[in-house]
Amino acid sequence: MKSSTMFALFGVVGGWISLSEPLPAQSQARQSSAQAVAQVRALSRLEQSLKASGSEGKFTFIVFSKEDNAAAREMLGVVETGVAERHEQAVVVTARANDPAEQPLIEHFGIGRAPMPLTVAVAPNGAVTGVFAKTINDELISTAIVTPTMMKCMKSLQNKQLVFVLVSASDKAAVPSGVKALQSDPQFRDRIAFTALRVDDPAEMRFISQMKIDPLRVEGPYAVLIAPPGVMVGHFDSTSTASQISAAIHKSGQCCDDPNCKHAAAPAQTATKTNSSRKN
Question: What pLDDT does residue 4 have?
Fold first, then answer.
């Protein structure tokens, strides 16, 4: 087993931002409820924009404000300039954080009490890839446009799932036997998600680097485990057992959502605080 030091790949999306999603079973129930609500009310302007840009495979940068002031105009100008340079990848929209019609999304993003102005970056699949309060720059805009696999991982992580990134040198990614065995563990089986990644995919070089993957060491079944909110638990191969993987999850403090869990206080080093900014 190759196990790496824990660190945050994505980080928490802002201290005062609480984009909290329930566990998978609860998430499905909420989604069903949301769909039912959508059937009896028209989509808001912002919801329509997100749906349209998502269908086009584009990121949406939402600039929120509560009033038209110099700070809001400055942030909007920076975002508009940055997105214009990436018009094939992203769009920009504006919204009032105090607009009653947008409250379902305000609640979902957890930004009701966030300092304004605020920019939220949303991937085509609905994952939040960036939250930037009061200030933003071109580098942060670029950072929020994540790779396809990062996008998938962030979506699963925001649904409180443990994500195994199956790494391979071909299109046929294999699941390590220890990971397969872990799927039988009642503590984890309903929280596991998979996504595949090729080590030679040029579009994923950024993510491969962040996960500290050495392409020369990827032989046979190989997986990188990431736990919410973006903690890299370790690298696991064909020699890794379910017990070893379980122990690594417990050590990372990501075994469950119970704040009183004895493992919850486990420290994790932060290597990258991707896609968030805070200015007091």
Answer: 42
